[in-house]
Design brief:
By secondary structure, this protein is of the alpha+beta class. About 50% of the residues lie in helices and about 15% in strands. The longest helix is centred in the middle third of the chain and has 37 residues, at about 240-275.
Length: about 375
């Protein structure tokens, strides 16, 4: 594997196109969506037209025939401007749609993927429960076979993309039986969302969140929800392994998102330091501010190297569980620290919602929690070290 993580001309051209889109289309309007806690349907529609939701999928399923690196580049560039838009793409593609692509039958792929890949519809990843976040093995949602149907009962929480007007699919992890040793047999079921949602599925109002206010996050309740037998994704009992594999990949995308937020903090702070004057000159001339900016740049650089290294290993078909966990752990920490420092550089203005860094400060903390807490990442790394 090459250790050169510089982008190919094609990837660099693509990155620039998303950077331009984020700057010219997303940045001018996203603050209003964020303050209203409104989902940015028009922005998501434009992202769909660009092909962002179909980046890693073959053209035969409506995708762009690209790769996972391109998806991560898009997520990073969007997150430089806004994390709500970035996480809508990340969760919809690297988690929701990717499960169908990795493990679905040909019929399931052709049914679900084309509208998802075109960005006309969104997918949600239904794993987390009130009693099973980091400890995902403690699932309480069950699904039992009743003739030609599965009957689902349980609750999911913190599910991104689950209640929008364009949500079409929710992948649901459920206990479908017990192994000989008594441990749960976990399977994945495909459940329609939106206007096709089955009876018994209750989609709660959006959460009132600290951050990610322009993204959709809800609780889902299943009470005797019936779906056809062919809604089973892959083999029965393989659901937990499916979710873990997709989460390993998703952590790379999540690290790219965190890197983008950290870069956005640097971008905003550099611009502010050049124009804000105090004590007779721009604050960027003060060594205290210069050192903060230098440290922010160093952190962004190492975070970007970490996620690109993991992405390159994934593309090469090499094991990358440890590298993905390292990237997610490091990049999320970098995002939180850079958001704090950006707010400090902006002073009182950093506490005002009209400044993007205030939004970034609110968005940063969840990056140490979502898709596996920092503590879980350390557990994964330690296990991979043989401990």
């Amino acid at each position: 594997m090459s250790l050169d993580h510089r982008l190919s001309p094609e990837h660099e051209e693509f990155r620039r196109s998303v950077e331009e889109f984020a700057r010219d289309v997303v940045a001018p309007v996203i603050g209003d969506y964020y303050e209203r806690h409104a989902f940015p349907y028009e922005i998501i529609r434009e992202m769909g037209k660009m092909g962002l939701f179909g980046l890693p999928f073959p053209e035969e399923y409506g995708g762009m025939g690209g790769d996972f690196l391109a998806l991560c580049l898009a997520i990073e560039e969007l997150a430089r401007v806004d994390s709500s838009v970035a996480v809508t793409l990340e969760a919809g593609v690297s988690l929701g749609s990717m499960l169908v692509y990795r493990f679905g039958t040909e019929e399931q792929k052709r049914r679900w993927l084309p509208p998802l890949a075109r960005g006309e519809k969104l997918a949600a990843f239904g794993l987390t429960e009130p009693e099973g976040g980091s400890d995902a093995g403690r699932l309480r949602t069950t699904a039992r076979r009743d003739g030609d149907e599965w009957v689902i009962d349980g609750t999911k929480c913190f599910i991104t993309n689950s209640g929008t007007d364009i949500t079409s699919l929710i992948t649901v992890a459920a206990v479908t039986g017990r192994k000989p040793d008594g441990s749960p047999l976990i399977s994945t079921l495909l459940v329609p969302g939106g206007d096709q949602k089955p009876a018994g599925l209750t989609i709660a109002p959006p959460y009132s969140k600290v951050g990610w206010n322009a993204s959709d996050t809800r609780e889902l309740s299943f009470s005797g929800v019936r779906v056809p037998a062919d809604s089973l994704l892959g083999e029965e009992g393989r659901g937990y392994a499916q979710f873990l594999q997709v989460l390993d990949e998703g952590r790379i995308a999540f690290a790219a998102l965190a890197t983008g937020l950290a870069q956005g903090c640097l971008d905003q702070s550099l611009a502010y330091a050049r124009t804000r004057t105090a004590f007779g000159g721009p604050i960027g001339e003060r060594q205290a501010i210069q050192f903060k900016l230098a440290d922010m740049a160093a952190r962004v650089h190492t975070a970007r190297l970490a996620w690109r290294d993991a992405a390159c290993r994934l593309a090469a078909g090499e094991p990358c569980k440890r590298q993905a966990a390292i990237a997610k752990l490091h990049a999320s920490d970098v995002a939180v620290v850079n958001a704090r420092e950006a707010t400090q550089i902006h002073g009182g203005y950093g506490f005002m919602n009209e400044y993007p860094v205030a939004r970034m400060w609110r968005d940063a903390k969840i990056l140490e929690i979502g898709e596996g807490t920092s503590e879980v990442q350390r557990m994964l790394i330690a296990r991979d070290l043989g401990l």
